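Our preliminary data section would be incomplete without showing what the modeling component actually yields. Below, a chain of 219 amino acids is followed by its predicted structure, encoded as tokens that our downstream tools consume directly.
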Amino acid sequence: MAALFLPAVWVGNIVVQAVSAYFHRNAQLGLPLLIAEFIGYAILFVALWLICARHGKPLFESLAWVSQPFQARHLIFLGVALAVVVIVLGNLLGIPNTETPFDKLLSDTASRIGIAIFGITLGPIIEELLFRGFLQPVLVDSMGVLPGLLATAILFGALHLAQNADAWQSGVLITLVGFVLGVVRHVSGSTRASAITHISYNALPFFAVVVSGLHPSHS
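Predicted structure:
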């Protein structure tokens, strides 16, 4: 799966570049790149489906997309509280106030809206299925619970580092988020639980993305 990740993203980019060139669109805008990412994820899930089918296992049940024992409102509260904690810690750690690659993707309204919708719907679900549904159980089984949770969280943080201009503060905070999501997944036994928490965590910053686009600064 690790070996397939970069080729999957590369194929997605090639497809989007070709389509954008045909329609004379800028392939570096947020929406086209979001489509490329989605194509890459689709390739990964086809590979996972083939692995599960080879062993006679259902895909989503194998990724722990099963009923979860917690009340949804508690998970929503946890996600929102985690977002607030990250904002506070980010201010304390002094995250550099510089334009990031992610900011550049939000240069047009369609990209802002598309990325915001993806960020509070399919995005968190896909990441939970891949990280907490597939990767985390493998690492926990091979390394133990705490090392497995930490390793998954670190990889989760590292994957998001580039889009935040490689600021170490962002890497630390996203790793913390990944660890909390990993604990939710491990305790509940369900990626649905961690996905609800992840969606709630994403809701606050992605709502801010849309609002900032509707009310641009005039300074």
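Residues 136 and 152 are 6 Å apart (CA to CA). The chain has two domains: 1-62, 66-219. Preliminary results of this kind motivate Aim 1 of the renewal.
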